[in-house]
Structure formats: structure tokens, C-alpha cells
Design brief:
Elements lengths: L1 H35 L6 H8 L3 H7 L3 H24 L5 H16 L3 H11 L14 H16 L7 H24 L6 H20 L6 H17 L3 H12 L1 H18 L1
Helix pairs in contact: 1-2, 1-6, 2-3, 4-5, 4-7, 5-7, 5-9, 7-8, 7-12, 8-10
Length: 267
């Protein structure tokens, strides 16, 4: 019995130490990305500044891209922890959407300067750091699930065709707000908060109007446009096999997606 306890204690100690090392590497990387830029920072430099071996750094993060994906995951987890409890107290769509967006900006606030640096790389259409890329599937899917949760508490009648696309559309809207926030230099980013207030009010009114029979042709036209836009984006399914052969990204993405789904259900 004592032997088993000793083994379990040793495993726990290793896990805690491993988590601490992983956090140290990530924090060091974010600091260096902010100071030097993403492209100019190497894994070797990150390892040296963190005081770990290069092999150890690669053990936790296979490349710089994995570091940024870990950063995206951290942002989402922090947002989820703030948004889900707050959503329980809100009943209307407008209030729930405001809660989701306000908590998103609030939890991202400490990284405003770094977000500007990262944007230079992530904005490229072919970048694996782009929010629409295959590599960001787990966090993107988890964010869309949160948008779905925002809609769960809504009692108004939403047409089925619109309801099916709405979580994705709300996620795209949130990305637009984030882009505005990155460029917002107003005190305490007041312009971003005003934009959220005005656009959420508009979205709420449009969704309420969507069930009006006179709006059906316009709604259908808008949804066709949405589908055309989605078809123009990279198709994750077509690229999964290639990614799996190259570096096992697919299995990592599926595992991360499962973790995100579990987190959301627990909350």
C-alpha cells in the first residue's frame, strides 16, 4: 500500500512539474513574440530564455505554431470560465450575446499588445495561425459551441434555416469585433465596447425580424451568400489525411475538440 501511495505521489509531482514547465515555456514564448515578433523568435531562443533544454521545449510544443495554438486554447478556456456562469443569469438573446462579447473582450484585454503583433502573421490566409485554418479547428469549434449555448436560452421563434447557421455567423461576428479591438487605441477600448452595444442591438432586432414572412426572400438570399463564403474557405475534411501523415495534427485536434466539448458540458 505504501509503495502504491509513493508511486501515485511521484506521478502527481511529475505532472505538476510538467505543467509548470509547459506554462513557463508558453509564458516565455509570448513575451518574446511580443518583444521580437513571431517570425524573429526561434524555439532555441525561447528554450534558452526559459532555462530549459531545446529538446524539452520541443517535447511540450512541437513548433512555434503549437505555442500559439496553446495560447488560443488558453484564451478560450478563460473566456468560457467567465461567460458560462454569467449566461445562467441572462434570459434574452440580447443580454446573452452582450454577455458573451463583453466577457470575450475583458478576458483578452491583458493581451492587447501581443494581439497586434500576432495579427501580422495570423492575418495571412495560408497561415496555420489564421482563425479559419485547419489547425485552429478545435478552438474554433469550441467557440461556435459557446455561440450555440448563447442561443439555447432564447425563446423566440427562429427559422430553422437561419438557426442552423446562426452559431457560425455569431462566431464570425465575434471575430470581426476582435479585429476592431486589435486596432482600437481609444482609452479602455471604449470604441470597441460601444460597437458591441450597437451591433448586438442590431443583431437582436434582425433575428427577431427573421421570422416575418416578408423577410423570407431576403433571409434565403443572405443564407445563400453565407454558404458561398463558407465554400470559399479551406475545407478541413479534404486536408485531414494529409495533415495526419505530416505530423499527427489531426489526432491532436480531435483530442483537443473532445476536451473542449467536455469543458462546455461540465459548465
Amino acid at each position: 500500500m505504501k509503495t502504491m501511495k509513493a508511486v501515485n505521489k511521484q506521478k502527481t509531482t511529475k505532472t505538476v512539474k510538467g505543467d509548470q514547465t509547459k506554462t513557463l515555456i508558453l509564458e516565455t514564448a509570448l513575451e518574446m513574440f511580443r518583444e521580437r515578433g513571431y517570425d524573429e523568435t526561434t524555439m532555441r531562443a525561447i528554450a534558452q530564455k526559459a532555462g530549459v533544454s531545446l529538446g524539452n521545449a520541443y517535447y511540450y510544443f512541437h513548433s512555434k505554431e503549437y505555442l500559439i495554438q496553446a495560447f488560443y486554447q488558453r484564451l478560450h478556456d478563460t473566456h468560457l470560465a467567465a461567460a458560462v456562469p454569467a449566461l445562467e443569469h441572462e434570459k434574452t438573446l440580447k443580454a446573452r450575446l452582450l454577455t458573451m462579447m463583453r466577457t470575450k473582450i475583458d478576458t483578452m484585454e491583458p493581451y492587447h499588445q501581443f494581439a497586434g503583433v500576432l495579427f501580422k502573421t495570423a492575418a495571412h490566409p495560408q497561415s496555420p495561425l489564421n482563425p479559419f485554418s485547419d489547425e485552429t479547428d478545435p478552438v474554433r469549434d469550441a467557440s461556435i459551441q459557446l455561440c450555440e449555448k448563447v442561443l439555447e436560452g432564447e425563446r423566440i421563434r427562429i427559422p430553422k434555416d437561419l438557426r442552423a447557421e446562426l452559431p457560425y455567423l455569431l462566431w464570425v461576428y465575434s471575430m470581426g469585433i476582435v479585429l476592431f479591438w486589435i486596432h482600437d487605441q481609444s482609452p479602455k477600448h471604449r470604441r470597441t465596447h460601444r460597437l458591441i452595444d450597437h451591433t448586438v442591438d442590431l443583431i437582436d432586432k434582425l433575428i427577431h425580424l427573421a421570422s416575418n414572412p416578408f423577410m423570407r426572400p431576403l433571409r434565403k438570399q443572405a443564407l445563400r451568400l453565407v454558404n458561398e463564403i463558407k465554400e470559399a474557405l479551406p475545407d478541413a475534411d479534404d486536408n485531414e489525411s494529409e495533415a495526419a501523415i505530416s505530423d499527427g495534427v489531426v489526432s491532436h485536434k480531435k483530442a483537443q475538440k473532445a476536451q473542449n466539448e467536455t469543458k462546455l458540458k461540465r459548465r
